[in-house]
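Example 3.
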Amino acid sequence: MSTSQTPLVEVRNLVKHFGSVIALNGVSMSVNHNEVLCLLGDNGAGKSTLINTLAGVHKPTSGDFLVDGQPRVFSGPRDALDAGIATVYQDLAMIPLMSVTRNFFMGREPLIGFGPFKRMNMDEADNVTRDEMHKIGIDVRDPQQAVGTLSGGERQCVAIARAVYFGAKVLILDEPTSALGVAQTSMVLKYINQVRAKGLGVIFITHNVRHAYAVGNRFTVLNRGKTLGTYAKNEIGIDELQNLMAGGKELQSLSEELGGTI
Amino acid sequence: MTLANEQNGSVARSDERLKKVSTLTAILRRPELGAVAGLVLVTIFFLLTANPAMFTLAGVMNFMAPAAQLGILAIGAALLMIGGEFDLSIGSMVAFAGLVFGTALVVWQVPLSVAILVAIAFAVFIGITNAQLTMRTGLPSFIVTLAFLFILRGLTLVGLKWASGGATQLRGMKEAVAGSPLAPLFSGDAFPGLFTWLAQAGIIDTFPNGSPRVSGIPVEILWFIAIALLATWILLRTRFGNWIFASGGDPRAARKSGVPVARVKTTLFVVTALCATLVAILTVLDAGSTDARRGFQKEFEAIIAAVIGGCLLTGGYGSAIGAFFGSIVFGMVLIGLTYTSIDQDWYLVFLGGMLLTAVVFNNVIRKRVTGER
């Protein structure tokens, strides 16, 4: 990626304390247009705190937070959304009993009519949902079918498509592939690539190096609340990345014990 | 669902495939299916066993009147259940609203319009109280409103004794509203002219003197139908309806998506209290009196009617028109048994049986149709 352009989102030396717990202790990262930045780190590395800060849920204790080069302070998730930063959480914020359409437009229903006769424009909502699903390659035969009938990968894609449709410029994906099988994972990864190709910046949080390497352009590794480093894809191999993420030696020796399978 | 292997070409075919959603699936997906099926079964049962008088116009009005009184409550309860909460205080609320309304009319001697406004104000207050207590404490609404089941019933008893000077009954409402232009909206029969005309034209049964056997449609039935239609429209076609489903389906997900869950639930609690108040006004004006046992156990009947109508106990799924049909099933059985030689107390057995069947049926259907895994 060119370094001359202004990053969509950039944080420098971000620190976040929860009482006496230091969750983030100087994290720096940035994501550009047309780029998938993978945020790697083992459990407890601070990934969740970082995305919650980016999404406006937490306020940083100190450090710089720039959106399009401008320093910003979000007072809530709504602010982050308005700034074009959309987060797709692990639980997807989808309701299985509700139809695909109703989920897609939840909280942002298109309206027609006047005064007391103002109603939800179901036809338009159905059409938009069907079109958006087609773009991803999910064949929703009937957008009125319940989300519960979709597979895990499809639900993930619907959640991403919803964020993109409502104008996200930066998409934060919180472990989108962690609960998915192989076919489902490749479907989601393919879609992440598609979203990037549209010019969006994607922050892809995962602890699976293979998934990260498949779609990532750059990799930021977190460990114990700090950035260990940021690497472009051509600077680092998949094994090095794996070791870096796990904090080196321990995993390597464990890996040898297990015959090199992790 | 097919995935990546069908990606190409699916766009072009999609519209044809859309029409192929099997009619059976589409019907099974309707939450009110159970209630309609129940209604058909009960109708067949009474067609076979009951005196044919049950299905004359007069007979239909006979069972629709109690169905309407229950149904207005059940529709409110259904909306609230879809929104993910219970209100066990609606039965007591009917009695309490009756007390407030009756006291305003008879003791304070205010006009009907003012008495209605006073009753509405109390309903809004109690609805908000229920909602705030539920949401602020994080307790299940089941417990909070169970407390109000007793509190409101007790207040009604105390209030009635105070208002009537020692009795648990308050009389004289009919006289108090006589001549009020609003009274026909809440009492008596609608469209008497039409029914007289129908009788003269020989379309409906008449008494020997030529006046119609049914002088009009009882107003509560019209309220019942209007509320069922309005609630269904709101639920299925408005933004607020979408918010109701979302709030009940998963409040956290709804909140993250920008749905004002607390506001939705508060509104629904107020709506149920208002439904109870409407029933109170209708029944008080109909009987001309109110007493402490008004609405006794109606909360359970209303919830059962809502469940028969397809509402899940866990929220997020259900139908207002289903509660409408569920209530008619109730009215038919309650009144229908008097047209048969069957002991009327079987009604209670039926109540429990119907509830069990409906809950089991709802669970099976939900799993099949929504593909819950």
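The interface with chain B takes residues 77-78, 89, 91-98, 102, 105-109, 111, 118-120, 122, 130, 134, 137-139, 141-142, 144-146, 148-151, 153-154, 183-184, 186-187, 190 of chain A (CB under 8 Å). The first strand of chain A starts at residue 9 and ends at 18.
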